[in-house]
Structures are given as structure tokens and as C-alpha cells.
Structures
1.
Amino acid sequence: MHPVLRLSEHAQRSADQAIGFLMQQAVENADCISLAAGLVDEQSLPVEAAREAVAELLSDVAAGRKILQYGITPGPEPLRRVFRSYLADLEQHPDGLKDLPLSQLMLTTGSQQLLSLVSQALFNPGDICLVAAPTYFVFIGVLQAAGARIIPVHADDNGMCPEALEKTLQQLETEGQLHRVRLVYVVSYFENPSGISVSVERRPKLLEITQRYSRSNRILLLEDAAYRELIYDGEPAPSIWSFDKTRETVILAQTFSKSFSPGIRVGFGVLPQQLVKAVSDLKGNEDFGSAHLNQHIVARVLKNGVYARHVETVRNSYRQKRDAMLAAAEREFADVPGVSWVRASGGMYVWMKLPDHVETGFSSELFRRATQVDKVMYVPGELAYPMDWPQRPRCEMRLSFGVQSVEGIEEGIRRLARAVKAVMGIG
Amino acid sequence: MHPVLRLSEHAQRSADQAIGFLMQQAVENADCISLAAGLVDEQSLPVEAAREAVAELLSDVAAGRKILQYGITPGPEPLRRVFRSYLADLEQHPDGLKDLPLSQLMLTTGSQQLLSLVSQALFNPGDICLVAAPTYFVFIGVLQAAGARIIPVHADDNGMCPEALEKTLQQLETEGQLHRVRLVYVVSYFENPSGISVSVERRPKLLEITQRYSRSNRILLLEDAAYRELIYDGEPAPSIWSFDKTRETVILAQTFSKSFSPGIRVGFGVLPQQLVKAVSDLKGNEDFGSAHLNQHIVARVLKNGVYARHVETVRNSYRQKRDAMLAAAEREFADVPGVSWVRASGGMYVWMKLPDHVETGFSSELFRRATQVDKVMYVPGELAYPMDWPQRPRCEMRLSFGVQSVEGIEEGIRRLARAVKAVMGIG
């Protein structure tokens, strides 16, 4: 018998998060059609592009050796220059964002590491983060681990509501808690889980409110643009970051995990100048630099145009799958009253609401029936709200069209409708 | 004028660390021969091996897609099986360590990430870590960021002294502080910076003492084996971990950054069963898995024998450079009284002691003279002790033979001797 192992408070707060439950369920329900997994479409993964990029990068021995050496904590400057040009293209910035100092760009292990580092840099236990309701559930876990107090802000079909954000901040000011607010977190494009984007009109408003309430201390806005390039209809919106002319408020998180390859695991962030050192110090302790080879792979495909062509292919593939899921939902749920879903214009998810009384959680009758009888799995919507938030809706589902084929999506939605009807006593 | 940006206590504790000063000095003294940089020998980097591994891994499109997909937080099980076999070979374990559950292996972004995760998992501010004096200075920074109290333990030519470890623990027990001790940190092979290994006789003793003082709570022993395979003389020693029959005390950190490529950035840890979940939860928040492609690259070269051959080449190259540095030191410092150094049997560093009154720190006359006049740079030894430790020696230097050619090493030591003699008023 060994004496007890004491864990830090940070570790204790990191335990028992939604993602853990979800992955456990995925393992236990491996025989289901998964509309749950947030993986990318395997058919879309750029095997040839990656192989060729590495072959080229390592074709010259001297150049190759530099690539296999340590980089530096934020990633090498020449590569950050390439990433800045890429961002300038995304932002349709006329002069290539040359006025953005490279020191404000940091290459990370996916954008997830940036989210984690920013949280570590900002939150003492009890400090406040405002998030849309619903929001990205993995980030909820990160915030919980940091001991942050998470306050959901109402969102509708145009994303987080500026009025609701302002009201929440006013309320916190009234309560004398405004000085504890560190961050507003917004997934601005085709949010995971809701599929909703913040409308163009609201983007500068969310920024302006955040800045206006930066009184005793600065409140930052973390814009998570993970799904930005997975756009299937309409024109791309400018980022919230692009409205931040002094670049002192918005942290922009970008990743190539969705648009290129999660197995290569490269993301980057644009940071307010005053946050650079803190995030870099933290990253220095964590890994003193993400894998250098991988940063070169992404820079290579960005430069030679392979990336742009690949994204176009990916978009076409996901667009078909999104269409298939929406059409299947129309078909299969036509006769189910009180069901609605978001017609996502991008991303990987369809967010579906059932009537209030139909609970979707892991311990619900629907989840049991879906996974045990009809053999289909989804992500319960309640995971996308802080667990201790009493008002959280219990009747929603995140349905991913990322992993399944068109046929798999159609069959998955058919099975899901069967389970919902059974639980609702229809048909 | 923007309102002040408030950083977390964690971020504040992460600031102003030795590594930051050192990198700044490296930039400012770019015209020097660097005996400071801890990079690996660029000539040794396995460009062809890496290129071929990727070409093979991505030659089949279906298999390649799985490699470019997300892995899982601790790394895929089949890969962990390969890493376990590799460890079994290192340990010369007769049955391939098949009794070690794969769940206890975790693949990380270099071993640095494991060190960081373990610290996050264990330390609340004020908790205690015992380290050898001197020790790996980047880990000192990690501990400071965690708010840990760092207590140096005397080490000699056979590594950390068991008697000194026991005395320190006794003292802490007397002070009622034993319950705050979480970890003993030991770089067991060719330590950075001292080049010293813990002798075979001391390995089980350090373990036994750690276990014996695990009274109110378990004390873990973190064995950092980063330089394990860079052995140039004698027989490899069994790890401290190998003596831990119940595998409940030692955390073993291994990396391929030194022996293969830091740009591929793959390391792994073996964790006591009860620590697995905490470290995995923390890593899930940080990145939900290091780059999957890179894990496959390393597994591939481990399996096909390329790695073993490469390590042999690396050893031969570093052995020559080590010999060159030791011979140059004999030559150049022969007429300098009171100078001694460690004849490292492995690793990348020679640890040199000057007479007590000859300070080596960044603000010392020697550092100024070496970098400004003689154009050679070293790492001041005092960085390898906690900054707030009053007894820390100020007259030591870490000299790396990793980066320079044999000629560069010889010229670097010649310049260094010139600077030392000038400061000591010799010749």
C-alpha cells in the first residue's frame, strides 16, 4: 500500500471534463455510426501534399538539417513571415499586414495550445471569462482547469449578442466584479458546436463593448477562428481582430488542423504586444517550441499554392456532406414537432434542438436508445455550457458531418430520427 | 493609452527566467564562438532517415490519411507499444517489458512537455521539489513558474548524494515540512549541466530514500534520462526507474530530441499508474495529443533499425568532440591554477570550475571579457542553481561540445582560456 499521491489544485480542476466522458462514450459505443466525433474527414487529408512537402524540404541535406534542429519558442521568424502573409490573404489586407510585427505571431501545437497558454497567462482562480452560450466545450474544460468563473452570454443566429454582452458586463460592474473579467471568448466562424458565425455587423460591436468595459483593467477578446476557411456559402467575413486597429484587445487563434491536417498539428496566434512575453515564457516552459519540421511543412504548402488548392477541395467535400446532413434532417425529422436545427454555412456541425422535455445527455433515455438500440452517437448539447450553469438547455445535440461519408450521414440521421421518435412516442 | 493588462500569478512567476537571459545573450553575442548553445550537432541530424521514413509512411494513401488525422492525447496504442519495446531494449529487459501497461506510457512534445505536465500535476505554490546542485536550469524555471520551493541537494562526481538527500528530508521532517515534498528531480545520465551520471550503486538508494520518506504523502522521483543514449565510454547503467519494482514512485522521461532530432520533437514518459489520469487530463487541455505524424516517424525508425544505426553514428561524432574539448582544456588551462572540470562520459557538456573568486555570471568581468574581447560564449554555472539560493557557486561554467566542430571547440577553448587568464591576471 503506497501513501496517497497528492495532486495540485490545477490537476484536480482538470479532472472529469466533458471531453473525457465523450471519448469514453466513443470507445464504449464503437459499433455506432458516430455523428459525435469532431475529427476531420479522413478522405480529405493531404497525403500526397505532405509527402511532397517533406521530400522537398529534406531533399537538400544542409537545409534539411536546419529543419530537424530546434526552432525557437515562437517559431522561426522567416516562417512567421509566411504565416503573416497567409493571414493577410485571409483578411484581404492590401499591404500584406507588413505593419504587424512578427513578434506578435506565435506558432503553436494546433490552436488548442494557444487557447491553453492564453488561459494560463490570464486567469487566477476566480477571474472571469465570458463565453457564448453554447460554446466550444474543450475550452470550457481549459477554463475550469484554470479555475476561471465562466459566464455564458446569450447568442442567437447571428452569434453572441452585443446587448447581452453589455448587460452582463454592466451587471458585473454593479456587483463590483468587473475588475475580475479577463477575457471574452468568441468562436467567430461556424462555431463549434452551433455552426453559427458572428454577423459582420456585430463584430466591431463586440470589440467596442469589450474595450469600453476595460476600465480598471484591460479585457481581452479571444477570437477562435478554427473553422474560418471551411466556408460553403457566401462571402468570408473579416475577423473581429481586423477591427482592432491598435491590436491591443483581440487575440486571434488560427489553425491548420481543420483545413489541412490535424496530424501535423500546426496553429498560430496573433497576440497583443503586451501579452507576447507572458505567452512566450509559458510556452518556453512547456516545450520551447512546437515541432519545427511541421511548421516548415505548412509554410511550404502555403508558399507553393498547394494549401490553397487543398482548401478548395476540402470545402467542396464538406459542402456536399453538409448538404447531405441538412437534406437528411429535412427528410427524417419532417414529422417530428418542435425540432429545429441550424443551417450552418460552414464548419463541421449541425446543431439540433429538440423539444425542451426531450433530454439528450449521457444519462438520458434518448442517448441510451440512440447508442444501444439504433446505434448512432451524437454529442449532448449540454456539454457546450458550463456544468454549473443552472439555465443550461438539456435538449440539444451537436451532429458532426466531418467523419462520415454521405451514406453514413444519411443512415446516421435516419437512425437518430428513429431514436428521437421512439423516445417522443411518435410513429 | 490602454488600461493595464493583468497577468496571472503563474505567468508572473514564469517571467525573467535564466533561459530568457541566455537566449538574449546569444542574440547579442552572435559573433562569438558559442560553447553555450545546447543545440545538437547539426551535422548529425538524420535528414535522409527522416525523409525516407515520411516517404514510406505516406506512400500508401489510406495508411497516410490515418497518420495525418488526430491521434489521441497519450499517443496511439500501437505506437506506444513500439516505444515500450524500445525502452525494454534500453533496459535490457528480457521479456520486452510486456508487463508494463501501455496506459502508463505517454508520448509528448519532447520530454520538456512531460516535465512541464508533471510539475503542473504535482505542485501547488509552496510545495517542495528537491533537485541536485547543480541541475537542469530550464527545469528550475518550470518549477519557479509552478511556485514550487526548490531545495538543492549536494551532488558529487557520482551524482546526487543519498546521504545528502536523506539529511535534507530529515531536516524537512523536523521542520514539519515533509508533507509539502512532492518530487525529487534527478537527471540520471550525463546531467545537463554537470555531465555527471548517478552511479549504479546510488540509483536504488535514491529510490529507497524517496520511498521511505513517503509518509504522509507519496514523494515521486522524476528521472530525466534525456542524455541516456549519448554514452561514449563504459557500459550503460540501468535506469533508476528499473529498480522501482511496483512502478509507483519513478516517473521516467525519455526523448528523441538529442539522439535523433529536436525538430521532430518527440519524447515520452513512463508514469506511475495513479499519475496517468492527471497528466493526461492536463495534456488534453494543452493540445489533446502531440503531432501524430512525428510519433509515426520515430516509431518507424525505431522499428526498421535506422534509429539504432543513427545513434551509433551520433555517439561516434560526439565522442570525438568530447575528446577534443577535454584535450583542448588540458592544453589551454594547464597553466591556470585552481581550474578543474568533469571528464564527462557522455552527454553534451563539460562542467568547469574556476577558483572561487573568479565569477562567471552575465555581469561578471569574465563574461564581459569573453564575449566582448575574446569572442567566446559559455553558460554561467550559477544559472543551474535556484536564483534565491545563497550558497550557489558563482565560479562555474557549462561548456557545450554539441554545436561546434572540432576546430570550433579547440578555438573556443583557446579563447576562453585567454579570457580566464586575462581576468586572473595570468600571462
2.
Amino acid sequence: MSTLNETHDSALTSWVASANSGDTDFPIQNLPFASFRRRNSSETFRGGVAIGDQILDLAAANNSGLFDGLAADALKAAAEPRLNRFMSLGAEAWSALRLALSRGLRSGSEQQAALQGCLIAQADAEYDLPCTIGDYTDFYTSVHHATRVGSLFRPDNPLLPNYKWIPIGYHGRASSIGVSGQQFPRPLGQTRAPDAAEPSFGPCKRLDYELEVGIFIGAGNALGEPVGIDSAEDHVFGICLFNDWSARDIQAWEYQPLGPFLSKNFASTISPWIVTMEALAPYRSAFSRPAEDPQPLPYLSSETNSREGGLDIQLECLLQTEQMRTRGEAPTRLSRSSFRHSYWTVAQMVAHHTVNGCNLQPGDLLGSGTQSGPEHEEAGSLLELTVGGKQPISLPNGETRTFLEDGDAVVMRGFCAKPGAARIGFGEVVGTVLTARV
Amino acid sequence: MSTLNETHDSALTSWVASANSGDTDFPIQNLPFASFRRRNSSETFRGGVAIGDQILDLAAANNSGLFDGLAADALKAAAEPRLNRFMSLGAEAWSALRLALSRGLRSGSEQQAALQGCLIAQADAEYDLPCTIGDYTDFYTSVHHATRVGSLFRPDNPLLPNYKWIPIGYHGRASSIGVSGQQFPRPLGQTRAPDAAEPSFGPCKRLDYELEVGIFIGAGNALGEPVGIDSAEDHVFGICLFNDWSARDIQAWEYQPLGPFLSKNFASTISPWIVTMEALAPYRSAFSRPAEDPQPLPYLSSETNSREGGLDIQLECLLQTEQMRTRGEAPTRLSRSSFRHSYWTVAQMVAHHTVNGCNLQPGDLLGSGTQSGPEHEEAGSLLELTVGGKQPISLPNGETRTFLEDGDAVVMRGFCAKPGAARIGFGEVVGTVLTARV
């Protein structure tokens, strides 16, 4: 796992003034990656790094030839339209580029004049998917979510016997993953009402979001060659925010015996910025589970994982209804949670995913599963917050919700903060539900 | 759906003599596509079309400039290392190239001299995946398989209530799909013995194959825009053979509530040749279900689908153990079945997959699910043939099997034949189980 170095020093400031504001998501200690271009332009997308309210255009920086050695090689790869090749280079290359960028963007840097010309305001940018996502796997790592949802789908058997032994996961759809700003029509599908003899067809009536983080694979592994838990994070590039939209009524009717399908694959939305594992190093913490729970099997267990497998990424989910948007009202918060509540670590997910020889590839995405906390109000989905649609929630403008309505925009944000370290943020992911096409 | 035309004429012969033998998989009425190069060479892979025991090298044919118009455009795309761009061009382009190839390879063709120099013997070739598979979905379309497997996993509840309403499907892993010849170590994983309190870890003890066909998407659809059942086959390029290897003991412990994961994603193997939907046109048949079964909802139903949705692809599965291979003994047949037993058609799978707005992309793969027939001996998996491992099968050389052993090679073949039409075949898909890496 990444160790602390000069790039994490909380005293560092940047010559980009907005990076020093204290409440920015993107101080010089963060340096996340995205693929961007000027909004409404026909420019080629290319890699960028967020600094304050600006983006350092990596294609422009690459053309300036300021860096040497491994950092220059890494910069060349990161300047491409999608980050897959950069991701494939591995931690040494990522780290070399991070160090070079940190030094170049630092207050007093001799490279300020050259790099200044490579900045583009985030306000003027639009984003693409940061990489081609070959395969997307969704895990189910919040025991609080699993228990609460399980109690709704299977009242007599909420948490299945395998849950505390296996990081439960399943394959999702890569083609329908979009970047923040994604809009999609309410899905149509088959559902069966609890009291109906036969299913019916129509627009989803129980449309929901899921508050997740997305984990991007960097260097891959060959088919047939498992990744051990202590080298698992060598294969992880970074983390984004992830909204795994879900059609609960379609899910309930379709999901047995082979799992969710059309209830999930109509859209999934990620934030544009990937925060690297190295940037997250200050926020590692011990990881353990209740003493009465089974301890993980050896392939899912290591001293390092216990010591620093935890990752406190604070998450929040907000809703802006169409009425709120029309009236110029800001999104209202629905819940807060944290990835520290995850029952399984990133390293455990990677080790489990590959233990049978399954190959991961650069740019593959692992969803964490809905990150609900232990308290009801920390739930990461409406299904939980409204107790299966039975307890509507009230919004400040007088509207209520059980599930999402047409025009609703869901906003997710995340950040890490603790005494002695710079607060770093993930930006946000926004997605909007359009009216069904009927 | 494709209509019959001069390319299907059973009286056609080719100037490639081996294409006229009567028992070849690849007469001039077939013309399937693959990506190939000379074996053990460092040549670039490129598209090829099978004719008898030869391959027409489409890159070489493209260089010869023999075709005009749409056929020439299609040939240029099909000559690329992977077929995705060709697949994206749609049925008119595929059909134009098929007609040009049929005329060029026909006995007496004026193009014989030019095309003769573009032939490479299949015996001298090796294959790559025919296309980049962005997403892979596995369906579950044999009601006979679903019922028999269901009775093993859920004796009290073999066929779930949704089965006859929904073409059940789930997302699989694209990265671990390999082409015929794939070898993989026996997967490791968690399993729990029926009488055990806790799971244990080790090599899979119930390794199985699944006899499927794979359906390749041609032209895609945009996110949010469903494909109606009567235009569904406009989006289908063709069909291959598909072995969806399965670790039954891992599956039993992991699959609830989100479906199979590590029990499936360690390897899946396809045949190199894709037989186009146009080549399959003579083998269409009426499609219906028992009168006592529910009739499909309107979005899964059409007059055309009822009239010609059926597709009689005869399938067989063979086993060659290591001992048989050492002694030079041919593979022995385990079972025969047909895709005509499918409870859902190709068009229904595509219409269902996209009805929620999910986007399909050129090169995406849909597995049919195990194609077991109604009789016990028509089962497409060892799980069924050995009744969950309780009734070992005897092989001609005296060996027995409940599940696959190390060194076992599984061979699948398929063909279509009926009076008045040329027999066309799929070639074969072979995969071999290696010893677990422990």
C-alpha cells in the first residue's frame, strides 16, 4: 500500500490560488485524474489533473516537455484520450508523475510559468469516461445495506449464510456506465405486484439510486494467476464516486436465481475524477470486524490488511427535484455515510475476484456496493430510507418521495478529512431521471 | 430476418474442392467469419472466411481489389484484426459481402485465379477472438436445463415463477473469454460441504462444462432506445459455439442473492467461426410453446417470431480425457441436443435485453444458456448427466466421470442440416482443464 511522502505534506500550497482555499476538493495533496476537453468543443478528450478550480491539461503539459524519466513516460500515457495505458503502467509510474506534478504545481515552483499556460477552468470543461471500462463488477460490501435490503426481499432470511465469508459480487453492465451528467429515461420492464397472478409491463415505479464508490483497476493480472491479498492494491489505480441506479420492482421479479439484470443495466453513473490510492494514503485505518463474526479465510486475510485496510471516505447523497431546480433551490441532503462501514476492504475484493484465476484489466471498475452506515439515516438508497417505500421522506420544499420521480437529479459527493492531513474531495457525480419513453 | 437468396442454393459448388465434400462444415452456402493468422507466426490477425478446409484471407482479398461498392467497403472492414467494425455496418453490408464471396468462390468464377492466391489451409492457421467483446450476457433459455438444475439447487422449488415470463439472463465476465484451444487451471475457491458448519478453500471439485451457443451482436442500439422484437435480428451478426465452464461447488455457496460470479468467470471458450444469421436462414422454423404455458408479453411476441423464430442448430458435446489423448483415442460423445429446445428465441433475448434502454454494442456476446433437450441423455452439462454427481457416467475406455478431471478436454460441435438445404457446420470449440495452481 502507498506510504506517506512529501506529496502528502499538509503544509504544501500551490501557486494555483484556488487550490489553497481549505474547502476545495482539489488541493495540491489530491491531484486526481479525469478525461476532459473544453465544453461544447470538438477537441480531442485528454487526461487532466484537478488543481483547485482548474484542470492541468496533461496533453499541453506533455507538449511542454518539462518532466524527465519515468514521470515523462507516465505523463505521455496520461495525456491520451483515455487513461487505460497510464493505468497499466503501475504504481511506480503513477507515483513518479504525482511527485512531478506536486513539485510543478507547488508554490514557488520554477515550472509555474510553463504550467500556467496548461490550465483550463473546470467551469469551462466537459468530461468523458476516464477510461474504457472492459468489465464492471459490483460488490455488496455494506453489511448494513445487505441486512436491511435482505429483510425487505427475504423477511425470513435477511443476511444469507455466505455473507460474512465471501465478498459477494456479481458482474454488471459496462456499456451503460456514463460520466456525471448522465440522463436516462425511466426504464420500462416487467414487474409483478405482490398480489398479482401475472406480471405486467410498464415504466418502473420504484426507481432508486445506490451510493457507492467505484474502484478502478490499474495494472491487470494474467488469466489463471490470482493476486494475493498483500499485492492486491498494487493493482488498484484509484477511486471515484458511483451511482448504481436500480429499478427495485424490476429487480424483485427478475433476480432469482441468477441475480439482478435489467434492474441495473439501464444506466450507472461515475464521477469524472479518479482519486489515486496514493492520494488516499493518509486516510488508511485499521480494519477489523466484530469478534463474534467469522474471521476471513487466509486468502482474504493479512496483517497489512488488518492494520490499514480501512479507508474513511465520507459520502453524502443529495436530491434536487425538478421543482427545486426550477425554483433555483440547491439539492437537499438525503443521507451521509462512509466507506469505512464496508465489511470488506479493497484488497479483499481484488484478492477474492482473482482467486479463481479471473483476469482483471486496466480500467476495469469494481463497485463497492451501496455504502449504508449502521444507522437508518445513514442508508445509501431510498429503498432503505423509506423502508421499502412504506415511509415516505419529506423534503424541505414540502415534496415527499418514496422512490425517484421524473426530473429528479441525484447528486453524490465524497471527501476525506482528518486532523493533520489536507482535506481531499472527489468532486461530485450527478445523474437525472427523464420521463419514460412509452 | 434474412430471406433465402442465391447464396443458399444447395446446388452451388465451389472451385475449392474440399468445400464440396458433403460432410464439410464449410460449404459455399456457409461462409462464416473468424480472425486468424498463420500458426506460430507473428503476422497480424485479420478476418477470414472458411471455405472447405481453407480460409479465404480477407486482408489479401481486400488488397486484390476485386469487389465493388458496398461489398468492397464491407470487405475492407472485415479484413481488420477484429470484426467489430464490420459487425457495426449492419445486415445490408454483411449480405453484400456474402453475395460477392459466394460469387467469387463459386465453380466457374472469373475471380478464381485472383482468389486462389488468398487461400490458407485451416490446418496452418491459429485463431484469435473474432472481435473485442465489450459485454457478455448469459441467458438461461433451456427450460429443461433450468428445471433439472433447479431441482438440484432447490429441490422444493425447481422452476421459479418468473421463468416462463422472462428470458432470464445475467451479466458474465468478458475478459476471461478465450477462443477454442483455451487451457486454464482448475479454479480455486470457497465451497461449503453440505454437512459443514464453515466453508473451506481449495481446488474446485465439481468442475463442469455448459453446452451453449453464443450470439454476436452486430449493429448496436443507443442507450435509452429499446430494440423492438421485429427489428431485433437486424442487430444480430451471427452465432458460434460456446462452452461456459462452471464450478458447481463454488456456485452453490456463492450464488445467493446476486447470482453466479467466481463459479463462472475463470474461463469461457468460444469457437473461432461465427456463422452469420443469413447463412442460418434455411434452418428457421416455427416457434411456439405449450398451450398451457403463459404466452409472452407483447414486447416479446410477434407474428414473425412465432413463424420463424426457431433455429435448429444441432449440438453435441464430447470428452477426451488425458488417457484417451495419450493413447490416441478420439473424443467420445457425451450428449446431443439442439438449440430448437430453447424456450426463448434470439429475437426475444435481444428485445428483452434492451427493453429497459440497455445499449448493446457491436461484438457483444449473448450466451444462450445450456442447451439441454427434454430427455436426460440430451443434457448439456455433467451436473445434469450425472444427476448432481450422484450417477457417474462410464466412458468407452473404462474411465468414469462425475465432473471434469485434470487433463480433460471438452469438445463441442454444431451443425444445421435438413432435406433440400446444404448442411452447414460451426466447426468446433475445444478447451482443456489444467491442474490447479496451489
